[in-house]
Amino acid sequence: MGIKILNPQTRSTVITYAIVVAAFIAVTVLDGLGFISNSLSGQLVPICAYVCLAVSLNLVVGVSGELSLGHAGFMSVGAFTGVVVAGMLARAGVESELALFALSAAVGAVAAGVIGFLVGIPVMRLRGDYLAIVTLAFGEIIKNLLNNFYVGVDDAGLHFSMTDSSSLGMTQGTILINGPKGAVGIDKISTFVLGIVLVLITVAVVLNLMHSRDGRAIMAVRDNRIAAESVGINVTKYRLMAFTVASALAGAAGVLYAMNYSTITPSQFDFNQSILILVYVVLGGMGNIWGSIVSAAFLTVLPELLRPINDYRMLLYAVVLILVMVVPHLKVYRRVADALRSRLAHRGPAAATEGGEADE
Asked: What is the number of alpha carbons within 13 Å of residue 213 lying toward its C-beta?
């Protein structure tokens, strides 16, 4: 009863945080009781990463109204930056996993945010299909650049090359990024608790931006660009703000994702990854933050739940996607048809009376 007296904005925010906290409690209890399998337990950190990615992309696609197809590129920038930072800190003697993750995530977010800002300066002057194509190209460029990155660390410091690992010139060092082979020997320090904390931080940043004066300006640009410009809103500035914040959050999610595996490769962050994140946003609803959370978690777990029928699981996955996208629209069409039918039924007798009077 208490939540009904809240205004819609506050109610939506409370529901969003409640979903995250309730999911954490439920999963923790079920895991403690042994109801969660090892394979599903291994998906908990990736679920948190994908939730962060979906929420951050919703800031661009749903709130700002721009179509971006390069989100996996920012994710990869954060992932590989985080791996390098964690490797350097570990060699420097930092043993706390919490400190390693926090510093790696912070630097990864900053690196992805800076790249997003630099890319956004020319890109945010484009709209529609042009923006989508350029962001898609950016993601592919990042992937191919990472395929030629060789980074190592030894007592002398950080070594970098774009030729091969032997040209790093290290003495008894550690190779952190090995070109197409990616980052190897990663310390798996990501946990479900850290993932939930990052989800809450991501949700807090996005919701606070949406409900701020800047957020209202971003949505004004989305709703009517010409009207926004006429009242003095700097369109490029606010579009760039949303794009940069989303890029930084994607970078932090990339660090969470990378630190859950012992090896990651640039090929994991390709066009398909960006499309997958976009599907989460569209399925959850444009601008609907808690919808992105639910859809990202559901679609990440679904292939694992369908594993017992391995031969048909991807077919069923596609069918579920189609049904989830189509059924709500069918309901809308049915309501429209019922409304039209009802209106015609009410007008029928009046039309007949008018017709009779005209005949007389």
From this structure: 1
CATH 1.10.3470 applies to domain 2-305: yes
pLDDT tens-digit readout, 87-124: 889 888 888 889 999 999 999 999 999 999 999 888 88
CB 85 within 8 A of CB 107: yes
Please report how many Cα atoms fall inside a 13 Å half-sphere around the Cα of residue 210, on the Cβ side: 24
Q: Which tokens belong to 136?
A: 């898609």
Nearest Cα to 255, choosing from 42, 52, 39?
Answer: 52
Q: For the segment 149-171, what is each residue's pLDDT rounded down to a tens digit?
A: 898 888 888 888 888 888 887 77
Distance of alpha carbon 192 from its chain centroid, rounded? 17
> Which token pair is 348?
């029928």
* Segment holding 160, helix H or strand E: strand 157-161
| Sequence-separated (6 or more) residues with CB below 8 Å from residue 243 | 60, 64, 66, 68, 116, 117, 120, 123, 124
CA distance 129 to 134: 9
How is residue 6 annotated by DSSP? Answer: S
